[in-house]
């Protein structure tokens, strides 16, 4: 009967051998036939994994290093033989990694198994990955991915998490967190539009655009209505649905930056989303346009760099403005600042209020008042844009929806005390 130690060794050996067989089976299918076939197949990869397992089992770093050098030399010879008709280095890299995974199976069999599955998945997804990079994703989108990763993996970790600057109001980590979250939400909306395609029409375009800027989306929809009057109803639907994005984004930002406030804002935000959705559906049912919408832009930037920079500047400016007014005028000054900030962007108030709450300069009820005032003033800004850009007919359809959404948000706030979900009346 095997001891517990023998069983553990056999388990680790099974993991190493399984990795070699799994990766080798995938490479065997792509090995080819005839004089141009690849040198390494299922047996070679299985042996490579076992070599790594044996070298690590006897705890010999020199032996493992020597084995990798020998294996590297053999793969170099194999590459020279096949480079004329297949210049790729995938199999050569995979066999070296398989050997190291066989060695990793001794101290960490679970991690080795996961990495082996990931390696096999990468090898098996060759055509799909190449097609995605070459035909699906655009150069602009690739640049957006690089910018987002730089912000999420470099800017966010390096930003100091302490309050500094005028009035001790600026926390660069919270500001970077706001930017990364806004970019993520915008990219998610853009991906939804790309996946669902052009048939989704202006409705999805407006919804996705609202994650970047609802005001800018209403401006764009109004301009479309002016140029093509037959698309006025469709543009109005997109404009109203952009306010749904505003509400969703507001809830996500609160959940990250002011989690204690989220339970009290769920009902107002939920009523706002429901009202905007129902009103957009009502407009769509009133009249449908027969004009094709194939010219709607589907590909572009996952998030607008200029808008992101402007939004960051607005958040920074609003944070300083509200902190200054709060210091000079107290709570009334803070509310004035929040109301004024909403004319530029409704979401900037979340970051500003989060900063004040975390410093102890504002309570949750004051933060909720500030956010609601910003949402209200932002509605006035959107209404002005709709009238100026879209004309009378477009504004006639959009303005009632904007007013209803804001009224629903305030109604949810007033009803919340009856449900025990409001901090405004404590």
Q: What's the total helix number?
A: 15
Computed structural class: mainly alpha
Q: Residue ranges: pLDDT <50 for 5 or more in a row?
A: 288-298
SSE arrangement, N to C? HHHHHHHEEHHHHHHHH
Distance between the termini: 70 Å
The biggest beta sheet is recorded as: 2 strands, antiparallel
Strand order of the largest sheet: 1-2
Approximate helicity band: over 70%
Report the β-strand fraction as a percent range. under 5%
Total discrete domains: 2
- Overall shape: it is elongated
Number of strands: 2
Describe the protein.
This protein has 426 residues and is mainly α. It has 15 helices and 2 strands. The longest helix is centred in the last third of the chain and has 56 residues, at 364-419. Strand 1 and strand 2 form a beta hairpin. It has a two-stranded antiparallel sheet with strand order 1-2. It folds into 2 domains: 4-132, no CATH class; 137-419, no CATH class.
Question: Keywords for this structure?
Answer:
about 425 residues; mainly alpha
Task: Give the SSE layout.
Elements: H1 4-29, H2 42-57, H3 61-82, H4 90-104, H5 109-124, H6 126-136, H7 139-158, E1 163-164, E2 170-171, H8 172-196, H9 201-227, H10 232-257, H11 262-286, H12 305-329, H13 331-342, H14 348-359, H15 364-419
Helix pairs in contact: 1-2, 1-4, 1-5, 2-3, 2-4, 3-4, 4-5, 7-8, 8-9, 8-12, 9-10, 9-15, 10-11, 10-15, 11-15, 12-13, 12-14, 13-15, 14-15
């Amino acid at each position: 009967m095997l001891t517990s130690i023998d069983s553990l060794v056999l388990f680790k050996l099974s993991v190493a051998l399984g990795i070699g067989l799994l990766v080798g089976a995938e490479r065997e299918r792509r090995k080819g036939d005839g004089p141009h076939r690849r040198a390494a197949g299922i047996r070679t990869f299985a042996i490579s994994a076992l070599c790594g397992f044996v070298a690590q089992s006897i705890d010999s770093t020199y032996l493992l290093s020597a084995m990798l050098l020998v294996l590297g030399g053999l793969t170099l010879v194999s590459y020279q033989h096949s480079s004329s008709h297949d210049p790729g280095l995938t199999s050569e890299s995979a066999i070296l990694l398989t050997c190291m995974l066989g060695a990793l199976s001794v101290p960490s069999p679970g991690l080795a198994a996961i990495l082996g599955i990931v390696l096999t998945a990468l090898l098996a997804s060759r055509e799909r990955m190449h097609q995605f990079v070459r035909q699906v994703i655009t150069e602009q989108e690739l640049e957006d991915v690089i910018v987002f990763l730089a912000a999420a993996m470099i800017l966010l970790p390096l930003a100091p998490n302490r309050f500094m600057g005028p009035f001790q109001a600026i926390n660069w980590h919270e500001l970077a967190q706001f930017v990364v979250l806004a970019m993520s939400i915008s990219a998610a909306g853009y991906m939804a539009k790309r996946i669902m395609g052009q048939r989704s029409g202006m409705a999805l375009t407006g919804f996705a655009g609202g994650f970047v800027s609802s005001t800018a989306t209403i401006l764009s929809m109004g301009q479309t209505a002016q140029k093509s009057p037959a698309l006025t109803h469709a543009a109005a639907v997109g404009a109203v649905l952009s306010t749904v994005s505003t509400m969703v984004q507001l809830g996500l930002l609160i959940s990250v930056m002011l989690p204690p406030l989220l339970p009290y804002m769920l009902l107002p935000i939920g009523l706002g989303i429901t009202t905007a959705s129902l009103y957009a559906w009502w407009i769509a049912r009133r009249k449908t346009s027969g004009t094709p919408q194939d010219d709607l832009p589907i590909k572009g930037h996952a998030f607008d760099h200029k808008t992101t920079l402007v939004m960051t500047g607005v958040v920074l400016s609003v944070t300083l403005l509200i902190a200054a007014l709060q210091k000079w005028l107290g709570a009334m000054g803070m509310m004035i600042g929040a109301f004024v900030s909403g004319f530029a962007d409704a979401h900037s108030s979340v970051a500003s209020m989060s900063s004040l709450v975390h410093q102890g300069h504002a309570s949750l009820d004051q933060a909720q008042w500030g956010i609601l005032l910003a949402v209200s003033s932002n509605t006035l800004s959107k209404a002005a844009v709709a009238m100026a850009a879209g004309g009378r007919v477009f504004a006639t359809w959009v303005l009632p929806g904007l007013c209803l959404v804001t009224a629903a948000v305030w109604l949810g706030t007033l009803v919340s005390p009856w449900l025990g979900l409001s901090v405004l009346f404590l």
